[in-house]
Design brief:
mainly alpha; 77% helix
Length: 153
């Protein structure tokens, strides 16, 4: 089987997962201080409510929400890697932030209105703004990783 150095060096799924995990870390780095300083909820609180509606957010449920957020972020990282593959690397941060903002719309406006039963943990305006900044951070962190991996391509 012929060896292609590009094929061996790059793995879009692996790179997308890593970029998504790093993007989720960037998201958490915004949410954690906001939670500690402003008292806003974190995405893990929110996801916990989606998974366990009307249940108290305990440490274990928060942990499941946190893990689920990183899992979802990894899957979106694959989508971002695909966007780069099919559209090129021009305007990379605009694409990454665009994906993050699209997720913010889904997270804040769409999911709460289609989930039944509706979670009782509703985002306040302050939490929505923090979440907007966090999703933007996701796009920046994820894009930065992909650009470093594919810089010589």
């Amino acid at each position: 089987m012929p060896s292609n150095s590009k094929t061996n060096r790059y793995d879009m799924i692996k790179d997308g997962v890593i970029s998504g995990l790093l993007g989720s870390l960037g998201d958490a780095l915004i949410h954690a201080p906001a939670y500690l300083i402003l008292g806003t909820s974190m995405t893990a609180h929110y996801i916990s409510q989606l998974i366990f509606p009307f249940e108290e957010v305990t440490i274990i449920r928060f942990s499941i929400g946190f893990f689920t957020h990183f899992l979802a972020g990894a899957m979106v990282g694959i989508a971002l890697a695909l966007v780069f593959k099919f559209t090129g690397k021009d305007y990379p941060y605009l694409k990454g932030i665009g994906i993050g903002l699209l997720l913010w719309i889904v997270h804040v406006a769409i999911i709460p209105n289609i989930v039944d039963p509706r979670p009782y943990l509703i985002r306040t305006p302050l939490e929505s703004i923090v979440d907007l900044i966090a999703h933007t951070s996701y796009g920046i962190f994820a894009t930065t990783y992909l650009l470093r991996v594919y810089q010589n391509e």
